[in-house]
TrEMBL record, chain A:
<dbReference type="GO" id="GO:0046872">
    <property type="term" value="F:metal ion binding"/>
</dbReference>
<dbReference type="InterPro" id="IPR050361">
    <property type="entry name" value="MPP/UQCRC_Complex"/>
</dbReference>
<dbReference type="Pfam" id="PF05193">
    <property type="entry name" value="Peptidase_M16_C"/>
</dbReference>
<dbReference type="InterPro" id="IPR011249">
    <property type="entry name" value="Metalloenz_LuxS/M16"/>
</dbReference>
<protein>
    <recommendedName>
        <fullName>Peptidase M16 C-terminal domain-containing protein</fullName>
    </recommendedName>
</protein>
<feature type="domain" description="Peptidase M16 C-terminal">
    <location>
        <begin position="172"/>
        <end position="343"/>
    </location>
</feature>
<dbReference type="InterPro" id="IPR007863">
    <property type="entry name" value="Peptidase_M16_C"/>
</dbReference>
From TrEMBL, chain B:
<feature type="domain" description="Peptidase M16 N-terminal">
    <location>
        <begin position="53"/>
        <end position="165"/>
    </location>
</feature>
<dbReference type="Pfam" id="PF00675">
    <property type="entry name" value="Peptidase_M16"/>
</dbReference>
<keyword id="KW-0645">Protease</keyword>
<dbReference type="GO" id="GO:0008233">
    <property type="term" value="F:peptidase activity"/>
</dbReference>
<dbReference type="InterPro" id="IPR011249">
    <property type="entry name" value="Metalloenz_LuxS/M16"/>
</dbReference>
<protein>
    <submittedName>
        <fullName>Protease</fullName>
    </submittedName>
</protein>
<dbReference type="InterPro" id="IPR007863">
    <property type="entry name" value="Peptidase_M16_C"/>
</dbReference>
<feature type="domain" description="Peptidase M16 C-terminal">
    <location>
        <begin position="171"/>
        <end position="347"/>
    </location>
</feature>
<dbReference type="GO" id="GO:0046872">
    <property type="term" value="F:metal ion binding"/>
</dbReference>
Amino acid sequence: MTTATILKNDNFKTVSIGCFFKLPLTKENLSYLTLLSNYQQLGTQEYDNQQKLEAHADYLYAAKFETRPQIYGDTIIVRAEGNFIEPDLVTDESYNYTAIIKFFEEMVFRPNFKNQADYQLDLAKKQVKHDYDSFSEVASNKAYQLFFKEYYKDYPDFQNPIFGDLALIEQLTVSDLSSYYNQLTKAPATVIAHVKYPQKMASILENTVFEELDNSNFGQSNLKTKLGKVGCEIEFDYDYNQAQLVYGYQTKTDYQTPILGLVFSQILGGDEYSLLFQEVRQKAGLVYSVFSDYYFYNNLVMIQTSLLSDSITTASEIIEAQLDKMRHNNWSEDLLQTAKQQLISHRLILEEMPQFKVQSELIAQLRKIEKADFEKQVNAITKQQVVEFAQQLSQPMKVLVR
Amino acid sequence: MITNQYHEKVYQHTFSNGFELFYIEKRGFIQKFAGIMINYGGADQPGDFVLPAGTAHFLEHQLFAKPYGDITDKFEQYEGSSNAFTSYNETMYFASFTHQAYENIKTLVELVAKPYFTEKNVTTEREIILQELKMYQDMPDWQLNNRLMHLMYGNESLSQEVVGTEDALDNITAETLTTAYNHYYYSKNMKLIVVGDLDFNQLVSEIEEDVMQINDKSNMVSEEKSSKIELKSQMSKISGKVESPKFSIGIKFDEQDFSVKRPQLYIAMQIIMENLFGLSGQFYQNLQSKGLINGEIDFDINFNRQGDFAVISGSSENPEETVHKIVKQFYQASISNVEFEKQKRKLFGQEIRQLDDFESYGIEFIESVFDHEDYYQYYTDIQDFSFDDCVSLISEIKNKSVHQSVILFSQNNVDK
């Protein structure tokens, strides 16, 4: 059975390869995977400490490798990814696809649970704490964390979408991680590579453990989370120079693609022509940054901004007035056309980024969908559909961090 | 036209007013990138008069204002998205787009060629920039860097925050911006870079009329180093909203004191910093095993008209001991042949990746033109850089640099 999908790279100077495992999103899974991914970056069986491992990556012309859990709605995808310069850019014959795959295989499938494993675990825990602290020190990140903590108060599995449960992580042992890792490798998985010489890569992968993974249940049609709490306002005091304001509006759960929500969010707060940017920043001069995002898998539209405390009331009124405009069809057809053009243009540029092909293939396999014609889908959206999308939004959850 | 060993084709054209265009051909790509870099940034001062701190950055914001509204709307009309940044010695305006390439590039030229400053639009923009400044002031890394630059450069222009201060912003008027614009925004002091799949001859003819509207004058910006401050090493402690203490160490040097040109000095500094502070280095591992470092050590090397410096930063529960060890190790630095070869390969691999990223490729390329360097020669320089060159330069670096450090403790712990 062939697990790997190998895509042809015609334009880029790097090889991208990813091995992806799928698990349900639970607080426990996310906590284990946060720690395990840090642990795997600190040593393997052959390179049994971080120094040896990083030295070998340096030697492979700054090979990049990373393992991290990423959340797609109610699902975690463990992304073990590598990025290497194409071997034909250097004259060194020892640097080839075989050397690349050997290293990548070592990274994914040969974690070190023996030699100085307790020390490695201690370092991994410290790394998680440091990453958590660094993330939380940024005021806008703190507001984002607090929002999700409140929004998913009734669903603890979804409350911390980035790190999991730090208290649980602190308790885990090497034995816990080792057992968990063994289970992980039996989870549904897929391998995707984007390389200049696909046939050469295919013949090398044939003899590796990558071809033995089970990808029969990798795809699933629905990845959406439960609905969280809305219709309330919550304040926190952190003594920041600027207050952080976050709105979350729930959408209906039956949208099959993210396209309509993306167009809506683009008009509301996607770019500099958007209603929020124009009204809150350009006309009122109240903020430096204001934007909206659509979280398709969470059925959520979020608005986030930073501002002075004495501007909160005025800014809130202007923000809410923009949503009213959208609900009452009090905005121009030109805005819709600009939003569509910008979405399509951003997408075309994204498609020419080295990592995009792998990411796009991953989403298609995960959701069991054909890679759709993005441009056609965006252009099919009508103004009436956008108005209806605005009308079905719930009352918001509003989080203010001062 | 030049073709190099990485099959990158580059075209150049100088218009009759001295404005230079560079075009990097990327056949088969839909995306395009265009940027105009001005040889003027937040640390530059005219010399015969003084502009308030933050003027270059304010100008960067204000040039988007036109009599018909914000020029961003025009880019959007042409399916492009625009942005800009200001550094110590540069201001860059740029756009990414997929269609209507010539219209987008002409709009970019209009952005820098046609200022429209009024007291009303300057007053509105000042409020927005104040919000930007407040946002930075909430960032621990900004607090560290701000303090470090003051330690290293006293009251010189490099210590001024690029965004300015609240007081300085109050003193920037439409007249200030016009003065700065007239002084720095002229055809020979800016260059255009375009990356993508275009017809070069058509590009030249399409934008010629627009380019000729850019102000033309002959006096050039001085490239003299101005930093005269004699430093004594010292450590400063400040407090802020951090979970764990952070530190930042500034290494101040002057490239004119060295026996090699900037690319070789940069390569040597990259190699020695990576060897000392990178994850594969023995020193980093020692710090980690003793619990003296949280996460990675970051470093950055800066060359500016007003002074050159490197910054080493990180987080530690015992920052004073960590800073002491880092400084000591820096001034005792050495490298083996094996380490040297490994770091050279790493540096080459890191740099070659840039050729896939239109935005950073375009920005780095045009910076190299202003620095009178051959962009592609840098790749050859890395490969040709010898162990003996490196050892000799490490010795020079240690002898010709001084350091300062700042520690940011969590609030209430500054006296510990």
